[in-house]
């Protein structure tokens, strides 16, 4: 129970902290956000903060479902439901603040365009800013292309080194096969030579045996007859 109490207190503190942070972001959208870059940056932080807050509410709900006492379980589930509804209200406020911020940014951009048409200096400054952004984008693209080419060259070098090593291995294997072919040829000649010698030995043994039998028959014939 003491462990659950610590978990519950920590979880509630985290929920309150992240809910306050979301409301601060909503206030920032309504007050100090003047550009699309700033709007996108705040919305990225809102997205991350919302994900953490949802996970804490789900954790509180899970703790409630794990309670043995019915009253504790119901109380924690109601509290989790309260924080969930509070998050939905905060998200609604954030959506409204986003819409207001976008409308203000669009209005400011329209006004700036109108001033640019009327004031050559403003138009010139705007053109310089656009050119600077374009140049920065082109530079970034060139750097990215340069990095890609360097990576391709590195991969080509590695591939060439691998091919060189493979070629050397194939050459060594070829030389080994040539040596093995010579050994096999020599062995075949020896086997052929031994085969012929075996036939000669068999023929000599047969002739010697025939001579021996003829001699025995001759001696027997002389003694008997």
Record keyword descriptors for this entry:
single chain, 225 residues, mainly alpha, elongated
What can you see in these coordinates?
The structure is a single chain. The protein is an all-alpha fold and 225 residues long. It is 95% helix and 0% strand. It is built from 4 helices and no strands. It is elongated. The relative contact order is 0.05.
Summarize the structure.
The chain is an all-alpha fold and 225 residues long. Helices cover 95% and strands 0% of the residues. The radius of gyration is 48 Å and the shape is elongated.
Strand share of the residues? Answer: under 5%
Q: Which structural category do the helix and sheet elements fall into? A: mainly alpha
The sequence of SSEs as H and E is HHHH
Computed CA radius of gyration, to the nearest angstrom:
48 Å
Task: Describe the sheet with the most strands.
Answer: none
**Which runs of at least 5 residues are low in confidence (pLDDT < 50)?**
none
Please bin the fraction of helical residues: over 70%
Mean pLDDT: 79
Shape label: elongated
Q: How many beta strands in the DSSP annotation?
A: 0
SS element count, helices: 4
N- and C-termini, Cα separation:
128 Å
């Amino acid at each position: 129970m003491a462990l659950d109490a610590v978990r519950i207190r920590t979880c509630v503190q985290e929920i309150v902290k992240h809910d306050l942070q979301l409301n601060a972001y909503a206030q920032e959208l309504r007050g100090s956000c003047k550009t699309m870059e700033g709007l996108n940056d705040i919305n990225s932080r809102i997205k991350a903060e919302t994900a953490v807050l949802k996970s804490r509410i789900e954790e509180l709900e899970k703790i409630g479902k794990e309670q043995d006492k019915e009253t504790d379980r119901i109380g924690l589930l109601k509290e989790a439901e309260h924080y969930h509804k509070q998050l939905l209200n905060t998200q609604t406020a954030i959506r409204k603040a986003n819409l207001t911020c976008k409308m203000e940014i669009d209005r400011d951009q329209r006004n700036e365009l109108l001033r640019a048409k009327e004031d050559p200096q403003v138009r010139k400054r705007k053109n310089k800013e656009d050119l600077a952004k374009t140049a920065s984008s082109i530079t970034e693209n060139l750097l990215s292309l340069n990095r890609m080419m360097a990576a391709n060259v590195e991969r080509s070098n590695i591939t060439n080194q691998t091919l060189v090593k493979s070629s050397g291995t194939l050459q060594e294997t070829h030389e080994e096969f040539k040596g093995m072919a010579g050994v096999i040829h020599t062995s075949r000649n020896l086997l052929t030579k031994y085969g012929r010698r075996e036939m000669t030995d068999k023929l000599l043994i047969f002739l010697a045996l025939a001579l021996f039998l003829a001699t025995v028959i001759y001696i027997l014939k002389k003694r008997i007859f």
